[in-house]
Amino acid sequence: MNIPSHYLNKSKEDLLTELESLLNEKEQALKELKIIHQISALIENPEYSFNEIISQAITIIHDNWLLSRLQSVKVIIGDQEYTSPNFEVTPWKLTEVISAEYNEIGDLQLFCSEEPSLIGTDTLQHSKELLHLIAVKLGEAAAKNSLQKKFNITFHQSPVAVCILDIDAGFQFLDANETLIEESGYKREELINKKLSDLGILKNPDVIDDLKESFHSKELIQGYPIQINSIENEIKYLIMNARKLSINSQNIAVASFIDITEILSLKASEKASNEFNRLLIDSIPLGLEIVNQDGKILFANKVLKNMFGEDLVGKTCWYSYRNNSQPCDTCPVKKTIQIGETFSSETNELIGNRTLQVNHTGFRYKGKPALLKIFIDITERRKTEQELRDANEKLHVIFDNVDDAYLQTDNNATITYVNPAAPAMFGYSSVQEMMGLQADLLYGKPSDALDVRNIMAQGEHIHDETYLAKRKDGSVFWVSMNARYIYDENGNIKGRQGFIRDISQRQEFEQQLIEAKETAERNEQKLREAQELAKIGSWDWDKQTNTINWSPELYHLLKLNPNLPPPGIYQSESIYTPDSLEKLSAAFQECLATEKPYAITLEMVKADGKHFFVKTQGRIVKSETGEVIGLQGTVQDIDRRRRLEIELTKAKNKAEANEKKLEEAQDIARIGSWEWSLTTNTTQWSPALFHLLGMEPNSSLPTYDESFAFISPESRTKVEKAVSECLQNGEPFILEFEMIRADGSFLTMLSRGRPTFDATGVVIGLQGTVQDITAQKALESDLIRAKDIAEANAKELNEAQKLAGIGSWQWIAGTDTVTWSESFFTLVGLDPSLPAPSYAELPKFHTEESFSRLNVVVEHSMKTGEPFELELEMIKKDRSTTLVWSKGNALRDENGRIIGLYGTVLDINAQKKLEADLIKAKEKAEESNRLKTAFLLNMSHEIRTPMNGILGFMGLLDEPDLDAETRSEFISIINQSGERLMTTINDLLEISKIEIGDLNLHFAEVDLREVMKFKYDFFKIQTANKGIHLKLGQQITGESAQIISDRNKLGGIMINLIRNAFKFTDNGEIEFGNYLKDDKLWFYVTDTGIGIPQDKIDVIFDRFVQADLGLSREYEGSGIGLSIAKAYVEALGGEIEVKSEVDKGSTFSFWIPYSPVSKPL
User: Fold this and answer.
1) Are 846 and 840 spatial neighbours (Cβ–Cβ below 8 Å)?
2) In the chain, pLDDT over 70 holds for what percent of residues?
3) 3-31 as b/e, with b when 16 or more CB fall inside 10 Å?
4) Which fold has domain 999-1153?
5) Which of 63, 319, 952, 1161 is the most exposed place for a label (fewest CB within 10 A)?
6) What residue stretches are annotated with the Histidine kinase domain (predicted)?
7) What is the number of other CB atoms lying within 10 angstroms of the CB of residue 333?
8) CB of 602 closer than 8 Å to CB of 614
9) Which CATH class is domain 669-780?
10) Which residues have CB under 8 Å from 355's CB, separation 6+?
């Protein structure tokens, strides 16, 4: 690549400066290029007023120009002036603008104050062209604003009733002038957005459809008669003139209404005063004329006389038409009267340079055909239209004088207009040669033409897009294009227009930038060294003249105007903070007094108000004779370094504070940390670890081997093994062991350790923590012992509850910053990688009552500094709750002010559960003792009662006088008492076997029918004697009744259940039976006895318990029958259940696995 020689001969500093300048020039050129399009977008935005457009345009110009070029902007529109905030006449004159020129477009003048030294340069010439285009754009806005003002005046101040209607919305009122509002009698809010038909005033509703049809075929409707009912319910006759307009695809009509009721009612008005009628007609702000069918003027109002300067009554109506002094077949009078046609025309005759619009309407006047002519002065409207045409002509003049090419095309991309710059740019001989050409021929790449059409078809404009253009001779060059659609008066696209700028020179300039950059990259290392140079400004002070001089770099550091004088050496309040200024003054005085140089750090203030740190140095300057004649020195920007130093100091202080808090937290949680280096065989202990072992933190540190002296002999092997495995596997460990304190006492420690690695992944040591869990272990032992004592016979309590971990926390009140330890996150089920919740978020982690209490103690501690501790109920992530014991203390800054709190939380959920379990076990033991006491009393009764019967009646048998019948009765009683005693003894033996687990089963073939019949026969007599009906209900029959089971145990179950039903049933029925369901053999016993209370159902199967235990001994029995039955059922692999209702009876059901007898082969 060929590199320009002027780059090769420059130093690296010059290359840097030029590269920076080139980049700035490119960036500014791009910014300036966008100004025109930004201002164009403002002008086309309907939401902005003209004043807003001008004000924002000035801001855009001022903010996007290089400060060294453009100092201020001023725009004059008529009597109004608009200026940028810093507009000044000095130090440069307004006449020194754009080479002593200013841009004037219509009523608009644009002034831009430039630096005099730049006037006439190439850069300024580029600015001239750009500012000229800006003036063009603002001129367009001024012209539009003028037209808009004139329309508003014409519309709102017109003496004729005028409104704007939305045709597509059924003639909906969009706006109405004050005359229409006043004459209609309606309020503005009653009209706007209402349809004409909604008002209910039309005598003929078909008028709406007729008007729609008329507007469908033509744009102008004149003299259209409408008959309405006024708001006072009077009939009025109106003449409507309207024009259809299409704005943004919306069809609207601008319509005027003239009330001719009085004119058409002249005959009726003859009864009234002629003078009154005359005054009434003359008050209408329109010229009115009535003509008969011969063309003779029968009536003319005062307004018409003023228009023509004479009274026209008696003259012919064509008197006012030039070159038409005689009636003809096409005369408007005859044509209108004969066929009833209504039309409008204009005339310039007999009234100077005024323009009139004349509307003709045929009607009957005094019973004869006549013509009503209405004259409307439209001079102002025509003048406005001419001004618009003049403005368009001026725009073409402007386009013809700009350097950029301007083109217009139709929808087929055929060129319809170009300015003179276009053929010069594209190599054509004249404007005429380009007219009719296809615009696609101007693209260097045909695909670019298609891209432009596609972009614009999506409703977007072309803004500053770069394309390759082609000249007539086929050569190509780079251009920048801006383009948009052209719309007709109906809002339809009729073509495209755009500006094209030749940027070939800019492209070459950018290529030179690239080459310069490539050259600079070859010296990348040198450039880096140059970039590392400090920013230093210099100064000197002349003692005799008391003047000070600054280098340009010093101005640059402070962002001050280098053309302004620097502040005096003792008048620098604006560039130094008060403390720094005082410090600098003292250094000056000392330097002058001692003649010793100084170097101090100060805080300065830039022009934009930004503070920064500098290092300033100074020394005296002496003359040849040794006299002190001044000072000189440097100012170096060290803001970045100084702020880093400040941040480092803050970080160091914060780290020291955090370390102190960590030590305090470790002391609170009784946690110490340690490190061991393999390379040096040295250890590091935290102060908390020294405290745990009863030692002073400044004690000498033991080596690894010496540290084993603090470990109990029983634990040393376990610790050595854990350390060895950690070193070998590189995996962390958790270990419990005992340590020996300085006073000889033992501590139980929970240690966590992990290896540390060097950069190559080799283990170089260990680090970890030890936590004193002595109290927890002791409490754990106490809990286990208490559990064992409370539930001596319960197997499920095989291990004690483990204590939950301890979590630490810290809260800074001013910033509401909360810090949690990892164990605290685990305690509430949150991810430790997430930030801790703020204090404001804590209510969702506590129950309402707990947070209320926490809030009280926190406020108290923040005010008084007193520590607190309380029990809280916290809510975990899964919405379950846990109990914690929270402790907190005041956190103070270096000045002793309370800035927050810190502390710990201990999970006491297990402890609380254990306390509840202890209470429950105690209650259960007390209940067991009560039941055993009741059982012994019951057994005593059950044994003593039959024994008393046996002994008593045996004694009576010795009586010699007993007859045979009485003797037989006594023997029967003795037998019954013996059987009752035997049953009690057998039950006691069975329950004893059950207690010791000596319940032997003997499975054999059992016939269920036989078992059920035996039980029925066994209890039939007893139940009958008691008046109870015994019923053998549903049962299995056939071969299915042959099963394998323990006959005695099955029979024992049934006997106990039927006996229980018999015991508690005084009358009614007892039913028992069996059935099969889901491979289970079910048995049931149902009675109509006293029933069982619901609070007793859960305990009736317990040993020694009856439902009536503790009330009275109304029902005999040992109270262990149901317990035996339940044990037999469970031994056979089944389950027993009961359903009961007091005073209605009970149903006992049980099932055992169904094991039918296998059929023989």
Assistant:
1) no
2) 69
3) eeeebeeeeeeebbebbeebeeeeeebee
4) Heat Shock Protein 90 (3.30.565)
5) 1161
6) 938-1156
7) 23
8) yes
9) alpha beta
10) 346, 348, 377, 378, 379, 382
CB neighbours of 1153 closer than 8 A, spacing ≥ 6? Answer: 1079, 1080, 1081, 1132, 1133, 1134
The bridge status of strand 1028-1032 relative to strand 1068-1077 is parallel
What is the rounded average pLDDT of the residues 665-693?
81
Does domain 12-152 fall under CATH 3.40.50.720? My reply is no
For residue range 1069-1116, list pLDDT tens digits in order.
999 999 999 889 999 999 999 999 988 887 788 765 554 544 344 555
- Residue 832 phi, psi dihedral angles, 5° rounding: -65, -20
Per-residue confidence band for 53, with pLDDT thresholds at 50, 70 and 90 = confident
**pLDDT tens by residue, 629-656:** 888 888 888 888 778 777 777 767 776 6
Least confident of 49-58, 96-105, 502-511: 96-105
Q: What is the DSSP string of 856-894?
A: HHHHHHHHH---EEEEEEEE-TTS-EEEEEEEEEEEE-T
Q: For the chain, count helices (H), then strands (E).
A: 32, 41
**Domain range annotation of the chain:** 12-152, 158-264, 284-386, 412-443+457-500, 543-640, 669-780, 999-1153
Tokens of 804: 């939950």
Per-residue tokens: 627: 């006299």
Whether the model pTM is above 0.70: no
Sorted by sequence, the CB contacts under 8 Å of residue 128 that are 6+ apart come out as: 98, 99, 101
Identify whether 91 is preceded by a cis peptide bond (ω within 30 of 0). yes
Q: Which residues of 814-827 are buried (b: 16+ CB within 10 A; e: fewer)?
A: eeeebbbbebbbbb
**Which residues face 322 on adjacent strands?**
none
- Nearest CA to 25 out of 97, 121, 101 is that of 121
Strand order in the sheet with 297-300: 297-300, 287-292, 368-377, 356-365, 343-347
CA angle 1105, 1111, 1116 (to 5 degrees): 60
Q: How far is CA 159 from CA 183, 222, 499, 500, in A?
A: 11, 18, 45, 48
CA 674, CA 668: separation in Å to the nearest integer? 17
pLDDT in tens, 313-344: 888 876 655 444 445 445 556 555 555 555 54
CA distance 835 to 825: 10
CB 581 within 8 A of CB 573: yes
In sequence order, what are the residues at sequence separation of 6 or more whose Cβ sits closer than 8 angstroms to the Cβ of residue 386?
none
Q: Which residues contact 619 (CB under 8 A, 6 or more apart)?
A: 591, 597, 598, 631, 632, 633
In this chain, the answer to whether the domains covering 543-640 and 999-1153 adopt an identical fold is: no
pLDDT of residue 526: 45
Which CATH code is given to the segment(s) 543-640? Answer: 3.30.450.20
Q: What is the pLDDT of residues 697-718, one digit of tens each?
A: 777 888 888 888 888 888 888 9
Structure tokens at 802: 């483990």
The CATH H-level superfamily of 412-443+457-500 is PAS domain (3.30.450.20)
Cβ proximity of 636 and 874 under 8 Å:
no
User: What is the 3 state secondary structure string of 350-405?
Assistant: CCCCCCEEEEEEEEEECCEEEEEEEEEECHHHHHHHHHHHHHHHHHHHHHHHCCCE
Say if domain 284-386 classifies as CATH 3.30.450.20. yes
What Å distances lie between residue 349 and 25, 332, 932, CA to CA?
63, 16, 137
Any idea which residue has 């004409």 for tokens?
196
Distances (CA, A) of 1015 to 331, 649, 1072: 136, 97, 10
Tokens found for residue 502? 């030749």
The single residue listed with the structure tokens 């201020």 is 72
Topology classification of domain 158-264 = Beta-Lactamase (3.30.450)
